[in-house]
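Model the whole thing, not chain by chain.
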Amino acid sequence: MKKNTTPVYYGDYLGLDKILSAQKLQSAKYASPAHDEVLFIIVHQVYELWFKQILHELASIIEAFEGEQVSDEALSTCVHRLNRIIKIQKILNDQISVMETMTPQEFLSFRDYLVPASGFQSIQFKMLEIKLGLKSKYRIDFDKQSFYQRLEEEDRSFLQDLETKPSLFELVESWLERMPLMEFEDFNFWQHYKDATQTMLKSDREIIEDNDTLSDTEKRKELKELENTEAAFAALLDKDKYSLVMESGDFRLNQRALLAALFIHQYSEEPVFNLPFQFLTCLTEIDENMTIWRYRHAMMVQRMLGTKIGTGGSSGHEYLKKTTESNRIFKDFFNMSTFLLAKDCLPSLPVNVKKMLGFSLSSI
Amino acid sequence: MKKNTTPVYYGDYLGLDKILSAQKLQSAKYASPAHDEVLFIIVHQVYELWFKQILHELASIIEAFEGEQVSDEALSTCVHRLNRIIKIQKILNDQISVMETMTPQEFLSFRDYLVPASGFQSIQFKMLEIKLGLKSKYRIDFDKQSFYQRLEEEDRSFLQDLETKPSLFELVESWLERMPLMEFEDFNFWQHYKDATQTMLKSDREIIEDNDTLSDTEKRKELKELENTEAAFAALLDKDKYSLVMESGDFRLNQRALLAALFIHQYSEEPVFNLPFQFLTCLTEIDENMTIWRYRHAMMVQRMLGTKIGTGGSSGHEYLKKTTESNRIFKDFFNMSTFLLAKDCLPSLPVNVKKMLGFSLSSI
Amino acid sequence: MKKNTTPVYYGDYLGLDKILSAQKLQSAKYASPAHDEVLFIIVHQVYELWFKQILHELASIIEAFEGEQVSDEALSTCVHRLNRIIKIQKILNDQISVMETMTPQEFLSFRDYLVPASGFQSIQFKMLEIKLGLKSKYRIDFDKQSFYQRLEEEDRSFLQDLETKPSLFELVESWLERMPLMEFEDFNFWQHYKDATQTMLKSDREIIEDNDTLSDTEKRKELKELENTEAAFAALLDKDKYSLVMESGDFRLNQRALLAALFIHQYSEEPVFNLPFQFLTCLTEIDENMTIWRYRHAMMVQRMLGTKIGTGGSSGHEYLKKTTESNRIFKDFFNMSTFLLAKDCLPSLPVNVKKMLGFSLSSI
Amino acid sequence: MKKNTTPVYYGDYLGLDKILSAQKLQSAKYASPAHDEVLFIIVHQVYELWFKQILHELASIIEAFEGEQVSDEALSTCVHRLNRIIKIQKILNDQISVMETMTPQEFLSFRDYLVPASGFQSIQFKMLEIKLGLKSKYRIDFDKQSFYQRLEEEDRSFLQDLETKPSLFELVESWLERMPLMEFEDFNFWQHYKDATQTMLKSDREIIEDNDTLSDTEKRKELKELENTEAAFAALLDKDKYSLVMESGDFRLNQRALLAALFIHQYSEEPVFNLPFQFLTCLTEIDENMTIWRYRHAMMVQRMLGTKIGTGGSSGHEYLKKTTESNRIFKDFFNMSTFLLAKDCLPSLPVNVKKMLGFSLSSI
């Protein structure tokens, strides 16, 4: 490894001249500088730096999944990087508490000077959403509209172009589809599965019917929900029914990919599934953390503005709350437990299958 | 201070014989013990211990507010204890991450043995809600019903009795009503306020109308919302209109109390308002933390069960998400910013008023 | 309030062109870009942004304390801003976990290109230390030396100039000295105090002597420590002894200031002391958080480098651990509990004194 | 899966009658109940519940490692459970902030009634230390002595018995020793390694010598440290030198185990090493979190008591700080980076070796 030839100085290396001079107060242009506008700017800059980091990790993961196959080494690196994203998200969520040290009155001292800037104009956040898989077709109507119209032309076309590239969601879907593990000779896993779910659903029905703490109305309600669950199970293994559910939006992954993911969840302790299971779990957590961030962000905006309009001319918190649930990308993994069977309801894997799923080397 | 006469031993003092022997696995009664049921039990026991601590602090605060007046020393103690509750809530929210280390499949290994136990049966959590101010009349219909029917008779009547006692919400409302600070001779604050809000609303209207990044539809939508805000302002200082809004549920505090709270927020830097402002801010945060807890809890339940029914025979996460927003107690403080004016729109307080709000001793 | 005349765009407002283009990899100059160097740069940039924010708050607090007196409004604002610093410090401490997602091997892939840059060259961190009160004379020898020699001339003279300006520590010391509250007619608090401490120390001696779980060696050790405590108490009210202890470095505040701080702690529930007590508690927490940061930072460096040298050519973690304890600024507040008496050992304040410490307005 | 035959009620299931009645105030026996003693008790009870959970996980991991070999499924489960311990530790560290809401004065209101109880008497904490690997021989002298003498006879003999059983440290050491992966035909990894380290150390020496920001004294100091590092490297591959270093306490793992751990760290991205690497990383983090806990705990005790003696009759914080560094169990993993080589200094693994380290199934 060569060494650097020119000595490096901390401040130069980090570009601190640029970073630390990039806080230009709007309030200072029109009145005396508002003390708290500095916090407002710096919090947002920190968010953008972290977004850059997340996008950097994400790009490398997308690249790994764009190839024809994902090697185990590559998957291991991807899991490592997704875990880093998760740690960063924890910080993103926690640092809302710093912004919340700004009282609504302090915010009012410079809010009016920011019109019509808005967090909706964060290109990196939109990139993050799109790259993860939140393309326009999945957005709610209001979001679809307003998504692009607030942006300058250059930014808009950049993002529109990004929409045409494969997202992580799409790449993971393809990768799951390629899994060769669902059917083996002499071992029809899905028949076992079908039988076991029948038993489980029957037992769930009994739990509801025997529950004396429920009123009749509640019981009817619960049985209705059970029927929905039964329908979901029925759709799982039936191509046509599956398509219908997918159109309704209740599934986002295609059938083959969902079944592969389910198999990984069911047999997660098999060595060969260990990394894939960790990978899917990471995606689930990233989605969950993003949802928590949306929710807490909406609360923060509400606390800061009440029903006042935001600087972008819209009451942000209403919109933000709407997108909290709708903008979930990997919700199929999140809902996976609907279809999971307890370990003792699962068939044991035949020896030859088990062997195939292990390492070449025996364990020590 | 006397000393103890019998030496104290750590384990005895903490009752560890009781605490550490209270983990009885249901799975062990019917099958081999499920490893993860221990986690399930201990997490819930930790929650209940913290609930006990929160209730202990809450009881002392309620007691302080039940008297005819709240001394400054008492208020100082209350703020200190509310801050403790807030720190505990942070832990309650963070420790969801521990429960989330249990995979859905691990949960399935003992779920069926717990029927029909349910977190809805936590008496301490219900006590907490009721004591804060979430009495039956404020609950959504489904919650009203199911609230009591899952409980054993003794618990039910205990809680129903608690509903008849003054909640912290009610006591704080009375305390705010007693504030003598709203009108002074020669200084009609509320007239100033009225004029200033007219100006602000007019300016907000212009912001919307001049915002070219909004489509016509969006503009109409924003203007409609502005009208709602204008109506809210109009109701603020008009007894009859206020009553109507209160009936709709948009205000929970009565008019006099809300105005007092607003005044405290507007002049929070006056020494006499420092503690009251901290007190109201604590209540706002407690409400916010409880809402975050409800939301994260709902997510955790969804991740664990998907659309499967819970042990109590209902799909918990749907219910939990419904109550996230509806069960907010101090939302008037949370929405207070709707009515706040920027500092430079506020009239300066006359010298005699300012003096009245300060200390006897001058500052050093 | 005027509005802005030129519309603001999110990315321009935040200077994102500068912020997001300031990640120049050293590795890219000499080899293929090291994936993890981006993390290394961004984490440090985020730290520097937060440092800027902390320095911004600190500057406003120092300004408030530079005047002849600190009004209650000003003190209230200072407490608010110190609390903000505390929240930021929590984030600074937590985000070490993000840096720790970089494995030692990943760090090795670009470490050699950074020579001789070092975190010791962070001007803002040094500013923070000096402004809080860590001037050269308080630094340990190694730190004194290396402090300046790694810096470029301009930075060095900037910091040396800063050393000549009053630090927050010095300003707070003066403010405490000005407190008029220590002696009142007809009420000699310090005589009461002296008597009460005698009783307490006698009781502590008995606790040790009667403790049968201690070995003789341990008992001797404990009694020796008690003698130190007795000596500290003796020094507290004796000018000459106090000076000696101060020279030894065990006290940093002068006697008058320390006694004022002690009085505030003893009667913290009196309205007039409420804010001063919060203020001193904030300083204590800031010091504690900085100490935790130093400790965790040292651990992280050790984990990353083992006993390898750092990029600055020194094994950072040894040095960092040394400064963890020595570089504490407000340790007198941290050790305050040594001198605190239990409430029931304290004399009640006479009515006239109590009245003087309250508000003009009676409580409601 | 059978269902339960007797319906389960939340409070009964969790043993809440025992849990919530186990808060017996000592202050109430001798004076009026101290409000904050409830917090003191509950915080400790929560700690003990979490300790129980950690011990439960630890027991299952120890059991898995006691067998003749550790299957990959078992290792996967162990990693999962270590990650759970890590999450719990985060909570343990964070909840110190709850205890810190108790002011020193509040603590003084009941401290004297607790004599001579002490946190040193927590049997579960001692179990945790011993089971992880902190047996008596590794404790510092003071800790060795005081460890047992404060305990009742039954507890003492229970722990002394535990010392005779294999700790996790010992079991992991054996497991690493069994690793067959260090030498392959036609591939002498350790010769490569030796050569590469020579180059690295030479380069480090140049970095120091060329660093003009260091004074002569500093340079000498750094070169002295480099010599220590060189000696450590020399010891690594030399049985006799290794033994000497081990006696000095700088290594705790035996040579073969340390080399195996080093190999795992160097090639962590190979599929077969993925889980072992995660496993060792978890142990490193558990050790780090425990160290942070010790440090923060010591700070908290200092803040609460200053130099006053604790209830157990000793000034806890001095002792606690001493054990912070000395009581580290897996410090060899923590210091592993000393011996790590950058990826580009490592020899590529031969194809046949690489194949052996992969899965039977090719990647998808």
